[in-house]
Amino acid sequence: MNINVEFSGGMELLFGGVAKKTIQISPTFGGNPAKISDMIIWLKDNLLTENVDLFIQGDSIRPGILVLINEVDWELEDGPEYELSNNDTITFISTLHGG
Amino acid sequence: MESGNQRVTCIKCKVLPSDIKIRQANFCKSCFQLNFITKFKSNLARSAAPQTEKRPNLLVAFSGGNSSRALLQLCSDFQTPGSGTKLQQKYNEMLILHLDESAIFEDQDAEKSIMEIIEKYPFKCITKKLEDVFSSSRYSKFVSKTTNSKGLFFSHSLEKETNESPKDLLVKLFEGIKSTTSKEYMLECIKHHLLLEAARENGCEVIAVGNSATRIAVKSILMTSEGRGFSLPFDVGAESTLEEDVYIVRPLRSSLSKEIVYYNNLLGLESVTIPTFSTKANANSKIMSLGYLTENFISGLDLEYSATVPTVTSTVGKLKVNANATTNKKCLICLAPIGDNASTWRKNVTIDSLDNTLKELKDDSSKIDENIKDENLVNVENSLCYSCLSLASDTENDTILPGFVQI
Ligand SMILES: [Zn+2]
Ligand SMILES: [Zn+2]
User: Fold this and answer.
1) B20 plus B143 within the same structural domain
2) Pair (B31, B65) in one structural domain
Protein backbone atom coordinates (compact mmCIF):
# COMPACT_ATOMS: atom_id res chain seq x y z
CA MET A 1 0.00 0.00 0.00
CA ASN A 2 0.96 3.65 -0.46
CA ILE A 3 1.88 5.84 2.50
CA ASN A 4 2.82 9.51 2.18
CA VAL A 5 5.59 10.39 4.58
CA GLU A 6 6.59 13.98 5.37
CA PHE A 7 9.62 15.22 7.29
CA SER A 8 10.07 18.72 8.68
CA GLY A 9 11.57 20.83 11.47
CA GLY A 10 14.97 19.26 10.77
CA MET A 11 13.76 15.64 10.42
CA GLU A 12 14.42 15.86 6.69
CA LEU A 13 18.16 16.01 7.44
CA LEU A 14 17.98 12.46 8.77
CA PHE A 15 16.47 11.31 5.49
CA GLY A 16 18.86 12.77 2.95
CA GLY A 17 17.09 16.13 2.80
CA VAL A 18 13.85 14.65 1.49
CA ALA A 19 10.77 16.53 2.77
CA LYS A 20 8.02 14.42 1.17
CA LYS A 21 7.91 10.94 -0.26
CA THR A 22 5.35 8.30 -1.09
CA ILE A 23 6.50 4.87 -0.03
CA GLN A 24 5.14 1.44 -0.84
CA ILE A 25 5.06 -0.96 2.05
CA SER A 26 3.48 -4.32 2.65
CA PRO A 27 -0.07 -4.10 4.10
CA THR A 28 0.86 -6.82 6.57
CA PHE A 29 3.83 -7.46 8.81
CA GLY A 30 4.21 -10.92 10.33
CA GLY A 31 0.62 -11.73 9.34
CA ASN A 32 -0.79 -8.66 11.15
CA PRO A 33 -2.02 -5.38 9.61
CA ALA A 34 0.84 -2.87 9.19
CA LYS A 35 1.18 -0.48 12.10
CA ILE A 36 3.08 2.81 12.31
CA SER A 37 5.70 1.02 14.41
CA ASP A 38 6.34 -1.36 11.49
CA MET A 39 6.67 1.59 9.13
CA ILE A 40 9.16 3.30 11.48
CA ILE A 41 11.40 0.23 11.36
CA TRP A 42 10.95 0.18 7.57
CA LEU A 43 12.02 3.84 7.38
CA LYS A 44 15.04 3.09 9.55
CA ASP A 45 16.08 0.21 7.28
CA ASN A 46 15.31 1.86 3.95
CA LEU A 47 15.47 5.65 4.11
CA LEU A 48 17.40 6.78 7.18
CA THR A 49 20.77 8.26 6.21
CA GLU A 50 22.03 9.49 9.60
CA ASN A 51 22.86 8.00 13.01
CA VAL A 52 19.95 5.76 14.10
CA ASP A 53 20.03 7.28 17.64
CA LEU A 54 18.71 10.53 16.19
CA PHE A 55 15.52 8.74 15.04
CA ILE A 56 14.94 5.77 17.29
CA GLN A 57 15.43 5.33 21.01
CA GLY A 58 14.81 1.92 22.58
CA ASP A 59 12.09 0.28 20.52
CA SER A 60 10.22 3.43 19.50
CA ILE A 61 10.73 6.85 18.06
CA ARG A 62 13.05 9.27 19.84
CA PRO A 63 11.18 11.52 22.31
CA GLY A 64 10.86 15.05 20.95
CA ILE A 65 9.70 13.98 17.50
CA LEU A 66 6.06 14.91 16.86
CA VAL A 67 4.18 12.40 14.73
CA LEU A 68 0.97 13.39 12.93
CA ILE A 69 -1.40 10.89 11.35
CA ASN A 70 -3.39 12.69 8.65
CA GLU A 71 -2.67 15.98 10.50
CA VAL A 72 -3.73 14.59 13.88
CA ASP A 73 -1.36 14.10 16.83
CA TRP A 74 -0.64 10.37 17.02
CA GLU A 75 -1.13 10.54 20.80
CA LEU A 76 -4.84 11.02 20.04
CA GLU A 77 -4.84 7.97 17.82
CA ASP A 78 -3.20 4.74 18.93
CA GLY A 79 0.36 6.04 18.75
CA PRO A 80 2.79 3.41 17.42
CA GLU A 81 -0.04 0.84 17.43
CA TYR A 82 -2.08 2.76 14.83
CA GLU A 83 -2.99 0.52 11.90
CA LEU A 84 -2.08 2.13 8.59
CA SER A 85 -4.57 2.57 5.75
CA ASN A 86 -3.75 3.06 2.08
CA ASN A 87 -2.88 6.73 1.28
CA ASP A 88 -2.43 7.77 4.92
CA THR A 89 -0.15 10.78 5.41
CA ILE A 90 2.32 10.42 8.26
CA THR A 91 4.25 13.56 9.25
CA PHE A 92 7.40 13.54 11.39
CA ILE A 93 8.39 16.91 12.87
CA SER A 94 11.43 17.41 15.05
CA THR A 95 10.82 19.59 18.09
CA LEU A 96 14.45 19.22 19.13
CA HIS A 97 16.95 22.01 19.06
CA GLY A 98 19.98 19.81 18.64
CA GLY A 99 22.32 22.11 20.56
CA MET B 1 -11.20 12.10 8.34
CA GLU B 2 -13.26 9.09 9.29
CA SER B 3 -11.21 8.27 12.34
CA GLY B 4 -12.03 11.76 13.67
CA ASN B 5 -15.41 10.56 14.88
CA GLN B 6 -13.84 8.42 17.56
CA ARG B 7 -11.44 11.07 18.84
CA VAL B 8 -11.97 12.90 22.10
CA THR B 9 -13.84 16.19 21.73
CA CYS B 10 -11.89 19.47 22.04
CA ILE B 11 -11.64 20.65 25.65
CA LYS B 12 -12.36 24.27 24.63
CA CYS B 13 -15.21 24.35 22.09
CA LYS B 14 -16.56 20.96 23.13
CA VAL B 15 -17.78 20.48 19.56
CA LEU B 16 -14.99 19.47 17.21
CA PRO B 17 -12.86 16.36 17.51
CA SER B 18 -9.45 17.18 18.97
CA ASP B 19 -6.34 17.27 16.78
CA ILE B 20 -3.52 17.85 19.21
CA LYS B 21 -2.71 16.91 22.79
CA ILE B 22 -0.87 19.56 24.80
CA ARG B 23 0.10 18.34 28.25
CA GLN B 24 -3.13 16.65 29.32
CA ALA B 25 -5.50 18.85 27.26
CA ASN B 26 -6.86 17.98 23.82
CA PHE B 27 -7.58 20.80 21.37
CA CYS B 28 -9.08 21.11 17.91
CA LYS B 29 -6.95 23.07 15.39
CA SER B 30 -8.64 26.44 15.79
CA CYS B 31 -8.88 26.34 19.59
CA PHE B 32 -5.23 25.31 19.75
CA GLN B 33 -4.25 28.25 17.58
CA LEU B 34 -6.30 30.73 19.62
CA ASN B 35 -4.83 29.45 22.87
CA PHE B 36 -1.28 29.56 21.50
CA ILE B 37 -1.56 33.13 20.20
CA THR B 38 -3.24 34.35 23.38
CA LYS B 39 -0.40 33.02 25.55
CA PHE B 40 2.16 34.73 23.31
CA LYS B 41 0.33 38.07 23.31
CA SER B 42 -0.13 38.13 27.06
CA ASN B 43 3.54 37.31 27.63
CA LEU B 44 4.60 40.10 25.31
CA ALA B 45 2.04 42.58 26.66
CA ARG B 46 3.20 41.99 30.23
CA SER B 47 6.91 42.18 29.45
CA ALA B 48 8.77 45.21 30.72
CA ALA B 49 11.06 47.55 28.82
CA PRO B 50 13.74 50.00 29.89
CA GLN B 51 12.33 53.39 30.87
CA THR B 52 12.35 55.69 27.87
CA GLU B 53 10.43 58.77 26.72
CA LYS B 54 9.04 57.05 23.64
CA ARG B 55 7.72 53.60 22.88
CA PRO B 56 10.66 51.19 22.65
CA ASN B 57 11.89 49.61 19.41
CA LEU B 58 11.75 45.84 19.16
CA LEU B 59 14.50 43.67 17.70
CA VAL B 60 13.36 40.15 16.81
CA ALA B 61 16.16 37.58 16.70
CA PHE B 62 15.66 35.15 13.82
CA SER B 63 17.84 32.08 13.36
CA GLY B 64 15.62 30.18 10.95
CA GLY B 65 14.88 27.48 13.54
CA ASN B 66 11.39 26.36 14.58
CA SER B 67 11.01 28.65 17.60
CA SER B 68 12.30 31.80 16.01
CA ARG B 69 10.21 31.06 12.88
CA ALA B 70 7.06 31.12 15.01
CA LEU B 71 8.38 34.12 16.94
CA LEU B 72 8.86 36.14 13.76
CA GLN B 73 5.32 35.45 12.54
CA LEU B 74 3.75 36.14 15.96
CA CYS B 75 5.72 39.38 16.52
CA SER B 76 4.82 40.54 13.03
CA ASP B 77 1.11 39.89 13.69
CA PHE B 78 1.41 41.64 17.04
CA GLN B 79 3.08 44.69 15.51
CA THR B 80 0.82 44.96 12.46
CA PRO B 81 -2.57 43.48 13.37
CA GLY B 82 -5.00 42.98 10.51
CA SER B 83 -7.72 45.48 9.68
CA GLY B 84 -10.63 45.47 12.09
CA THR B 85 -8.33 44.81 15.03
CA LYS B 86 -7.74 47.68 17.40
CA LEU B 87 -4.24 48.99 16.82
CA GLN B 88 -2.46 49.03 20.13
CA GLN B 89 1.20 49.08 19.34
CA LYS B 90 3.46 48.39 22.24
CA TYR B 91 6.56 48.94 20.17
CA ASN B 92 7.47 51.85 17.97
CA GLU B 93 9.35 49.97 15.28
CA MET B 94 10.15 46.31 14.70
CA LEU B 95 13.47 45.14 13.23
CA ILE B 96 14.68 41.65 12.41
CA LEU B 97 18.14 40.49 13.41
CA HIS B 98 19.80 37.61 11.69
CA LEU B 99 23.10 36.14 12.86
CA ASP B 100 25.00 34.68 9.94
CA GLU B 101 26.71 31.49 11.14
CA SER B 102 28.01 30.41 7.76
CA ALA B 103 31.63 31.14 8.70
CA ILE B 104 31.76 28.06 10.92
CA PHE B 105 29.06 25.85 9.48
CA GLU B 106 29.59 26.75 5.82
CA ASP B 107 25.97 26.27 4.90
CA GLN B 108 25.22 28.82 2.16
CA ASP B 109 21.89 27.17 1.32
CA ALA B 110 20.67 27.74 4.86
CA GLU B 111 21.70 31.41 4.63
CA LYS B 112 19.78 31.82 1.39
CA SER B 113 16.64 30.17 2.81
CA ILE B 114 16.81 32.35 5.91
CA MET B 115 17.01 35.55 3.87
CA GLU B 116 14.08 34.40 1.72
CA ILE B 117 11.92 34.06 4.83
CA ILE B 118 12.98 37.46 6.18
CA GLU B 119 12.15 39.13 2.85
CA LYS B 120 8.51 38.06 3.26
CA TYR B 121 8.17 40.58 6.08
CA PRO B 122 8.01 44.37 5.75
CA PHE B 123 10.62 45.04 8.42
CA LYS B 124 14.19 46.27 8.29
CA CYS B 125 16.69 43.42 8.57
CA ILE B 126 20.06 43.64 10.25
CA THR B 127 22.64 40.94 9.62
CA LYS B 128 25.56 40.31 11.93
CA LYS B 129 28.21 37.77 11.13
CA LEU B 130 29.80 35.66 13.86
CA GLU B 131 33.24 36.78 12.71
CA ASP B 132 32.27 40.41 13.52
CA VAL B 133 33.59 39.68 17.02
CA PHE B 134 37.05 39.60 15.42
CA SER B 135 36.61 42.74 13.34
CA SER B 136 39.82 44.77 13.44
CA SER B 137 37.97 48.00 12.70
CA ARG B 138 35.91 47.46 15.84
CA TYR B 139 38.61 46.11 18.13
CA SER B 140 42.18 47.36 18.26
CA LYS B 141 43.48 44.64 20.57
CA PHE B 142 42.71 40.99 21.11
CA VAL B 143 43.62 38.80 24.05
CA SER B 144 44.77 35.23 24.11
CA LYS B 145 44.72 32.67 26.86
CA THR B 146 47.62 31.09 28.76
CA THR B 147 47.60 28.59 31.59
CA ASN B 148 50.73 28.09 33.65
CA SER B 149 51.72 27.06 37.18
CA LYS B 150 50.67 30.46 38.51
CA GLY B 151 47.17 30.07 37.14
CA LEU B 152 45.02 31.24 34.28
CA PHE B 153 46.06 34.36 32.38
CA PHE B 154 44.92 36.51 29.49
CA SER B 155 47.42 38.59 27.56
CA HIS B 156 47.37 40.90 24.55
CA SER B 157 48.18 38.98 21.39
CA LEU B 158 51.04 39.85 19.16
CA GLU B 159 50.36 42.09 16.18
CA LYS B 160 51.34 39.51 13.57
CA GLU B 161 48.73 37.04 14.77
CA THR B 162 45.91 39.50 14.39
CA ASN B 163 46.72 40.13 10.74
CA GLU B 164 44.58 37.10 9.96
CA SER B 165 41.07 37.65 8.66
CA PRO B 166 38.19 37.75 11.19
CA LYS B 167 36.84 34.56 9.66
CA ASP B 168 40.17 32.73 10.10
CA LEU B 169 40.36 33.87 13.71
CA LEU B 170 36.82 32.64 14.33
CA VAL B 171 37.56 29.23 12.83
CA LYS B 172 40.80 29.03 14.84
CA LEU B 173 38.95 29.95 18.02
CA PHE B 174 36.60 26.99 17.64
CA GLU B 175 39.45 24.70 16.65
CA GLY B 176 41.21 25.74 19.84
CA ILE B 177 38.24 24.73 22.01
CA LYS B 178 38.32 21.02 22.76
CA SER B 179 34.88 19.72 23.74
CA THR B 180 31.62 20.08 21.83
CA THR B 181 29.95 21.35 25.00
CA SER B 182 32.51 24.16 25.33
CA LYS B 183 32.26 25.04 21.63
CA GLU B 184 28.48 25.38 21.96
CA TYR B 185 28.92 27.47 25.06
CA MET B 186 31.36 29.85 23.34
CA LEU B 187 28.97 30.15 20.40
CA GLU B 188 26.18 31.13 22.84
CA CYS B 189 28.42 33.82 24.37
CA ILE B 190 29.26 35.25 20.94
CA LYS B 191 25.62 35.29 19.85
CA HIS B 192 24.54 36.93 23.09
CA HIS B 193 27.16 39.61 22.60
CA LEU B 194 26.17 40.25 18.97
CA LEU B 195 22.48 40.47 19.95
CA LEU B 196 23.19 43.22 22.46
CA GLU B 197 25.53 45.00 20.08
CA ALA B 198 22.96 44.98 17.26
CA ALA B 199 20.25 46.26 19.60
CA ARG B 200 22.40 49.15 20.79
CA GLU B 201 23.60 50.11 17.32
CA ASN B 202 20.03 50.25 16.05
CA GLY B 203 18.37 51.93 19.00
CA CYS B 204 16.35 48.91 20.12
CA GLU B 205 15.52 48.72 23.81
CA VAL B 206 13.90 45.29 23.64
CA ILE B 207 15.11 42.05 22.05
CA ALA B 208 12.67 39.17 21.57
CA VAL B 209 14.22 35.71 21.49
CA GLY B 210 12.47 32.43 20.69
CA ASN B 211 13.21 30.34 23.80
CA SER B 212 10.34 27.89 24.38
CA ALA B 213 9.39 26.36 27.72
CA THR B 214 11.07 23.16 26.57
CA ARG B 215 14.25 24.99 25.60
CA ILE B 216 14.29 26.93 28.90
CA ALA B 217 13.95 23.68 30.86
CA VAL B 218 16.80 22.10 28.88
CA LYS B 219 18.94 25.22 29.22
CA SER B 220 18.33 25.49 32.97
CA ILE B 221 19.44 21.93 33.61
CA LEU B 222 22.36 22.39 31.25
CA MET B 223 23.52 25.61 32.86
CA THR B 224 23.20 24.17 36.33
CA SER B 225 25.33 21.22 35.28
CA GLU B 226 27.87 23.67 33.83
CA GLY B 227 27.95 25.56 37.12
CA ARG B 228 26.10 28.63 35.94
CA GLY B 229 23.24 28.29 38.42
CA PHE B 230 24.27 31.64 39.82
CA SER B 231 23.15 33.59 36.79
CA LEU B 232 20.11 31.47 35.90
CA PRO B 233 17.45 34.16 36.38
CA PHE B 234 19.33 36.42 33.96
CA ASP B 235 19.62 33.78 31.31
CA VAL B 236 16.27 32.06 31.36
CA GLY B 237 13.87 34.21 33.39
CA ALA B 238 10.82 35.87 31.85
CA GLU B 239 13.01 38.75 30.86
CA SER B 240 16.65 39.56 31.42
CA THR B 241 17.55 42.82 33.05
CA LEU B 242 21.25 42.06 33.18
CA GLU B 243 21.81 45.07 30.92
CA GLU B 244 20.17 48.32 31.95
CA ASP B 245 19.61 49.69 28.47
CA VAL B 246 18.45 46.54 26.65
CA TYR B 247 15.93 43.97 27.89
CA ILE B 248 15.70 40.48 26.48
CA VAL B 249 12.14 39.10 26.43
CA ARG B 250 11.01 35.50 25.85
CA PRO B 251 7.35 35.60 24.79
CA LEU B 252 7.31 31.88 23.87
CA ARG B 253 8.48 30.89 27.35
CA SER B 254 5.16 29.23 28.26
CA SER B 255 4.85 27.25 25.02
CA LEU B 256 6.18 23.74 24.54
CA SER B 257 8.28 23.11 21.46
CA LYS B 258 5.55 20.66 20.44
CA GLU B 259 3.07 23.57 20.32
CA ILE B 260 5.52 25.67 18.31
CA VAL B 261 6.18 23.10 15.60
CA TYR B 262 2.48 22.26 15.39
CA TYR B 263 1.67 25.98 14.93
CA ASN B 264 4.31 26.24 12.19
CA ASN B 265 2.87 23.16 10.53
CA LEU B 266 -0.69 24.56 10.66
CA LEU B 267 0.37 27.85 9.11
CA GLY B 268 2.78 26.25 6.66
CA LEU B 269 5.69 28.23 8.10
CA GLU B 270 8.86 26.67 6.83
CA SER B 271 11.91 26.64 9.08
CA VAL B 272 15.57 26.30 8.24
CA THR B 273 17.76 23.83 10.01
CA ILE B 274 21.19 25.16 10.75
CA PRO B 275 23.87 22.63 11.61
CA THR B 276 25.19 22.76 15.18
CA PHE B 277 28.39 21.48 16.73
CA SER B 278 26.30 18.61 18.14
CA THR B 279 24.75 17.58 14.85
CA LYS B 280 28.20 17.73 13.25
CA ALA B 281 29.75 15.68 16.05
CA ASN B 282 26.87 13.20 16.05
CA ALA B 283 27.29 12.51 12.37
CA ASN B 284 30.83 11.29 12.91
CA SER B 285 30.91 9.69 16.29
CA LYS B 286 29.09 8.44 19.32
CA ILE B 287 30.27 11.38 21.38
CA MET B 288 27.30 13.53 22.26
CA SER B 289 27.47 16.97 23.79
CA LEU B 290 25.98 17.72 27.18
CA GLY B 291 23.39 19.86 25.37
CA TYR B 292 22.24 16.97 23.20
CA LEU B 293 22.07 14.58 26.15
CA THR B 294 20.16 17.06 28.32
CA GLU B 295 17.64 17.66 25.56
CA ASN B 296 17.15 13.90 25.16
CA PHE B 297 16.74 13.52 28.90
CA ILE B 298 14.15 16.29 29.23
CA SER B 299 12.05 15.22 26.22
CA GLY B 300 12.11 11.61 27.41
CA LEU B 301 11.05 12.62 30.91
CA ASP B 302 8.36 14.96 29.60
CA LEU B 303 6.83 12.15 27.56
CA GLU B 304 6.42 10.03 30.70
CA TYR B 305 5.56 12.87 33.07
CA SER B 306 3.97 15.72 31.17
CA ALA B 307 4.59 18.08 34.10
CA THR B 308 8.38 17.98 33.70
CA VAL B 309 8.86 21.00 31.47
CA PRO B 310 6.29 23.27 33.20
CA THR B 311 7.73 22.32 36.61
CA VAL B 312 11.31 23.15 35.67
CA THR B 313 10.27 26.33 33.85
CA SER B 314 8.07 27.67 36.63
CA THR B 315 10.72 26.88 39.24
CA VAL B 316 13.31 28.81 37.24
CA GLY B 317 10.82 31.65 36.72
CA LYS B 318 10.53 32.04 40.50
CA LEU B 319 14.26 32.34 41.05
CA LYS B 320 15.37 35.78 42.12
CA VAL B 321 18.70 37.27 41.29
CA ASN B 322 20.85 37.27 44.39
CA ALA B 323 21.32 40.86 45.56
CA ASN B 324 25.07 40.29 45.42
CA ALA B 325 24.84 39.32 41.80
CA THR B 326 23.87 42.76 40.58
CA THR B 327 26.42 44.71 42.55
CA ASN B 328 29.41 42.59 41.72
CA LYS B 329 31.66 42.70 38.72
CA LYS B 330 30.82 40.96 35.48
CA CYS B 331 32.52 37.99 33.92
CA LEU B 332 35.02 39.01 31.19
CA ILE B 333 33.60 36.54 28.68
CA CYS B 334 29.85 36.09 29.22
CA LEU B 335 29.11 39.32 31.15
CA ALA B 336 27.17 37.40 33.81
CA PRO B 337 27.68 38.65 37.35
CA ILE B 338 30.37 36.91 39.38
CA GLY B 339 29.19 36.36 42.94
CA ASP B 340 31.08 37.28 46.09
CA ASN B 341 31.65 33.67 46.84
CA ALA B 342 32.53 32.51 43.35
CA SER B 343 36.27 32.29 43.86
CA THR B 344 36.02 30.74 47.34
CA TRP B 345 33.44 28.31 46.06
CA ARG B 346 35.65 27.41 43.16
CA LYS B 347 38.55 26.65 45.49
CA ASN B 348 36.37 24.23 47.42
CA VAL B 349 35.16 22.46 44.33
CA THR B 350 37.45 20.32 42.24
CA ILE B 351 37.67 21.42 38.67
CA ASP B 352 39.17 18.35 37.14
CA SER B 353 40.39 19.64 33.83
CA LEU B 354 41.74 22.92 35.16
CA ASP B 355 43.55 21.25 38.05
CA ASN B 356 45.05 18.70 35.72
CA THR B 357 46.22 21.34 33.30
CA LEU B 358 47.87 23.21 36.16
CA LYS B 359 49.51 20.04 37.42
CA GLU B 360 50.89 19.17 33.99
CA LEU B 361 52.34 22.63 33.62
CA LYS B 362 53.90 22.56 37.07
CA ASP B 363 55.84 19.48 36.07
CA ASP B 364 57.27 21.34 33.13
CA SER B 365 58.64 24.39 34.89
CA SER B 366 61.26 25.41 32.33
CA LYS B 367 58.63 26.71 29.89
CA ILE B 368 56.77 28.56 32.58
CA ASP B 369 59.55 30.86 33.63
CA GLU B 370 59.69 32.38 30.19
CA ASN B 371 55.98 33.04 30.24
CA ILE B 372 55.98 34.61 33.65
CA LYS B 373 58.47 37.23 32.53
CA ASP B 374 55.89 38.56 30.14
CA GLU B 375 54.45 41.55 32.01
CA ASN B 376 51.52 41.50 29.69
CA LEU B 377 49.95 38.57 31.55
CA VAL B 378 46.84 39.34 33.60
CA ASN B 379 45.51 36.76 36.04
CA VAL B 380 41.79 36.31 35.31
CA GLU B 381 40.81 33.60 37.76
CA ASN B 382 38.69 36.04 39.74
CA SER B 383 37.34 37.78 36.66
CA LEU B 384 35.54 34.81 35.14
CA CYS B 385 32.41 32.97 36.20
CA TYR B 386 32.62 29.24 36.82
CA SER B 387 31.38 28.29 33.32
CA CYS B 388 33.85 30.58 31.62
CA LEU B 389 36.67 29.22 33.79
CA SER B 390 35.72 25.76 32.55
CA LEU B 391 35.58 27.08 29.01
CA ALA B 392 39.01 28.73 29.34
CA SER B 393 40.53 25.56 30.76
CA ASP B 394 39.09 23.63 27.81
CA THR B 395 40.78 26.02 25.37
CA GLU B 396 44.29 25.56 23.95
CA ASN B 397 46.95 28.01 25.08
CA ASP B 398 47.52 31.01 22.79
CA THR B 399 44.01 30.82 21.33
CA ILE B 400 42.91 34.35 20.43
CA LEU B 401 39.60 35.28 22.06
CA PRO B 402 36.77 37.41 20.57
CA GLY B 403 37.29 41.18 20.73
CA PHE B 404 34.62 41.75 23.35
CA VAL B 405 36.88 39.95 25.82
CA GLN B 406 39.20 42.72 27.03
CA ILE B 407 41.63 43.05 29.93
ZN1 LIG C 1 -12.10 23.45 19.74
ZN1 LIG D 1 31.27 33.88 32.29
Assistant:
1) no
2) no
User: What is the B308 CA–ligand 1 centroid distance (Å)?
Assistant: 25
Chain B residue numbers with beta carbons less than 8 Å from the beta carbon of A9 are: 66, 261, 264, 271, 273
Instruction: Output the CA A97–ligand 2 centroid distance in Å.
Output: 23
Domains in chain B: how many in total? 2
* Closest C-alpha among A26, A19, A20, A18 to residue A1: A26
Whether the full predicted model's pTM is greater than 0.90, yes or no, is: no
Which residues of chain B are within 8 Å of residue A84 when distances are taken between CB atoms?
Answer: none
Contacts of B63 (CB under 8 A, 6+ apart): B98, B99, B114, B210, B274
Residue of A9, A71, A76 with shortest CB distance to B261: A9
The answer as to whether A99 is a domain residue is no
Using CA atoms, how far apart are residues B54 and B5, in angstroms rounded to an integer? 53
- Nearest ligand to the CA of B339 is 2
Name the residue range of residue A49's domain: 2-94
Same domain flag for B381 and B350 = yes
Give me the CATH number covering residue A25: 3.10.20.30
The torsion angles phi and psi of B154, rounded to 5 degrees, stand at -115, 145
Q: Are residues B124 and B19 part of one domain?
A: no
At B336-392, the pLDDT tens digits run: 777 655 555 555 554 444 555 555 555 544 444 444 445 678 888 888 887 788 889
Count of domains for chain A: 1
Range of the domain at B136: 47-393
Partnered with residue B400 across adjacent β-strands are B144
Q: Residue B97's closest CA among B131, B121, B78, B66?
A: B121
B20 has which bridge partners? B27
> Is residue A58 within 8 angstroms of chain B, CB to CB?
no
Contacts of A62 in chain B (CB under 8 A): 296, 299
CA of B112 to the centre of ligand 2 (A): 33
Q: Which ipTM value was assigned to this complex? A: 0.93
Q: From the CA of A16, how many Å to the nearest CA of chain B? A: 13
Tell me whether residue B150 is exposed, middle or buried, using C-beta atoms within 10 angstroms of its C-beta: 0 to 12, 13 to 18, 19 or more. Answer: middle
